[in-house]
Structures are given as structure tokens and as C-alpha cells.
Amino acid sequence: MEIPVIDLTPYVDAASGKFSCDELLHPELKAVCSEVSRILRETGALLVRDPRCSTEDNDRFIDMMEKYFEQPEEVKRVQERPHHHYQVGSTPGGVEIPRSLVDLEMQKKLRELPKDRQPAIPTGPDLKSRYMWRVGPRPSKTWFQGPHLLAPTGSSWRRGNRVCWISLRHQLPNDSLQK
Fold first, then answer.
1. Phi, psi values for residue 87, rounded to 5°
2. Tens digit of pLDDT for each residue in 19-59?
């Protein structure tokens, strides 16, 4: 399957104020949103092209994250935050339970799909590890009192590979990040 690529330029233009979205979505932005919705409905996967980040920025980011996940488990375990429900930091494999494992209605819908379109229904916890950090300003009123930003350990992160990814949050209006 070829994974479709979505260009975020119309969204970035809307967020920057290039065109107004006061009452109705700009037709170009509406078209991108409709296309994303269609692709996710039909395939569940898409690639995103963000005009604010270069291919080199993306490659550096991917390299950095690959190095992070290649580290020994005991290094990543230091950054686990189970008391924050793993909403920041490292989440080890075997912690997250896929919704399709416990949602019987979803399982029924998946089984109703044509055989060649049916995904495998998980039989246990998700084995992949992940890393999450908060991006964007902290809301002034929140029940979540977790750490604001927990960056992956490693010298390449500290040397500036995060610049493009973290600076993106400063290019969008605050309210667009909190929706």
C-alpha cells in the first residue's frame, strides 16, 4: 500500500492568519481536512509534510529518536512517569492496552470488514515503547500538574536537534495547540 502524503501548508497558513477562518473553513483548508478524514477512514495511515521543517530537520529528529530507543531499558526507565499516566516521558512496551482489545463493539465492526481489509485484533498489551513530551504552552487552568517538557536524554537532543520541532509550537496561536 502506498501511504498518502498530506501537506500541512493550508493549515499553517490558516493558523498564521494568512486567510481567515472566522465563520467557515477556507475552501483550501476544508479540502485538506476532508482528505485527511477520508484517508484515515479508508487506510488508517498517512504521512504529513510540514512546510516549517526541512527533510534534514526530519532526518535529524528520526536519527535522534532511533538513538534514544536503542538505549538500554534502565536508561529509559528513569524517564517513565506512571504517576502522570505516561502522558510525558517514556512508556515501556506492554503497558498500553489497545482499545480494540477491550472494545467489543469495535471488534464487531472490524470483523464486519471485508476479509482483505480486516486488521489483526490484538490479543494482549501493545509491545511497542513510546516517548511523549508536552508541546506548547501549559494552559493557565489545568487539572494536570505534570512536568511541562521532558526531553529525551542524550547529547544530540541537548545540542539543538530539537530546535525545529520545539520552535514549531511558537509559530502557532496558543489556542490552536490546546484544542
1. -80, -10
2. 555 556 678 788 888 999 999 888 888 998 888 888 888 88
Is the domain of 161 the same as that of 135? Answer: yes
Mark whether 40 and 66 lie in a shared domain: no
Query: In whole angstroms, what is the distance from residue 88 CA to residue 133 CA?
Result: 5
Strand partners, 80: 90
For residue 151, give every residue at least 6 positions away whose Cβ sits within 8 Å of its Cβ, in sequence order, or none.
133, 157, 158, 162
For residue 12, give its domain range. Answer: 1-51
Q: How many residues does the chain have?
A: 179
CA distance 28 to 32: 6
Residue 6 CA to residue 97 CA, distance in Å, equals: 29
Q: Name the grid cell of 24.
A: 467557515
Q: How far apart are CA 9 and CA 28, in angstroms?
A: 10
In a domain, 122, yes or no: no
pLDDT in tens, 56-114: 888 888 888 888 888 898 988 888 888 888 888 889 999 999 999 999 999 999 999 89
Task: Verify that 47 and 59 share a domain, yes or no.
Answer: no
Report the candidate in 134, 147, 157 with the shortest Cα–Cα distance to residue 71: 157
Least confident of 95-104, 113-122, 135-144, 155-164: 155-164
